[in-house]
Specification:
Blueprint lengths: L1 H9 L1 H20 L7 H36 L12
Helix pairs in contact: 1-2
Length: 86
């Protein structure tokens, strides 16, 4: 598994993804640097992030279920013969 990770990071696309992730983490650190923020503010951010994750999970599962139902209805095949074919 470690070898696969090394191969991915060694490829140009893997290096690009890693550098974008690193830059995003640096930007998040700079943006979130707040001297006035207390422990209560961090708790509110954590609670808000939890609610956002739950909402995104529910929305994603609903979209996935609708796409699955749409494809299932299109691929339905009946094996009954009609009376007019005899």
């Amino acid at each position: 598994m470690l070898e696969l990770f090394e191969l991915i990071l060694g490829s140009p696309i893997g290096a690009l993804i890693f550098s974008v992730l690193k830059d995003t983490l640096y930007a998040a650190t700079i943006i979130s640097d707040c001297d006035e923020c207390g422990f209560n503010d961090l708790g509110k951010l954590l609670f808000g992030g939890l609610i956002l994750a739950i909402v995104i999970g529910i929305a994603g599962s609903l979209l996935w279920r609708r796409a699955k139902e749409k494809n299932a209805a299109a691929t339905f095949v009946s094996i009954k013969s009609s009376d007019g074919d005899r």
